[in-house]
Amino acid sequence: MDLTHRPRRLRQDRVRGLVSETTLEPADFIAPVFVDATTDERRPIETMPGHERVPIDEAVARVEEVLETGVEAVMLFGIPESKDSEGSRAWAEDGVVQEATRRIATETDAYVITDVCLCEYTDHGHCGPLEEELRGEDGSHEHGPECDPIQTVDNDATLEALDRIAVSHAEAGADMIAPSGMMDGMVAAIRAGLDREGFEHVPIMSYAAKYESAFYGPFRDAADGAPAFGDRRHYQMDPANAREAMREVRLDAQQGADVLMVKPALPYLDIVSDLRREFDHPIAAYNVSGEYAMLHAASEKGWLDLEAVAHESLLSIKRAGADLILTYFAEDVAERLSDRR
Ligand code: PBG
Fold this sequence. Notes:
ten-stranded mixed beta sheet, two-stranded antiparallel ribbon
């Protein structure tokens, strides 16, 4: 028996740290924050224990809580006071994200990233204004009495809206813009808009490979953004596809995306790792609401140790190749990392 090689030699306590390949830092995390224009008190989000929707007046206080844990960046989501078919509150100068951003940017040192999408702002819950498409039962485009109109998001009309939203966020003081709608050409449209208005220095983090995932369920309750009919499979990616992700992400890189994101994270670590090899951009991964909720649910039942599985999840995302991690665990894990020092 040849035991020249004994990997266990390096697993002894005093050497494990020296040979550890991956480390987590509070500065790796981005904490999602929900600002709600329909409430004047903090409201817990039932499906995401420990998270709340906060009124605009509490946005600064909420972000300060995040900063205290050592996390330096937040991703802002807004729940508007009203919705319409176009999602016009998304680009309003006095909109919920614009107001919150203005205050957070002037009163705190947080790095403010804003989610740019229309689904929280449209009354139908889709990620852009709708157009009607006539399709035969066989999916053909022939128009005739046997055709049912189906509604789908009007890609090019949405691009104009995304340009306006991104500019309104930058005007309010956003440090980085993060489009999440998976419209074709969205990065180019936003880059052009920002440059036109003098925001050449504001980077874009594209939700570049965003899948049509059932793991967004708890978020849709949190942000009131569930589609009123149908689903998002006409614009978000098919979970079956990996090669398509490379093509989709390459387009965003060509259009000038500064950071490339994969979403969700854990079920798509193969994509994170492919991107790490293929691109030299910073890679972000979004550890989504369902990934958070399932660990909490199992730990409430006493089936998993929450602290341990949260840490292991984030470590695996980093190991797969992510530089930045958007996660609802940001504050908890960052606090524990700082305690250990
Ligand atoms: C909006 C958006 C979604 C998430 C982030 N931005 C929801 C969706 O596409 O339905 C999901 C975040 C999460 O589940 O944590 N387009």
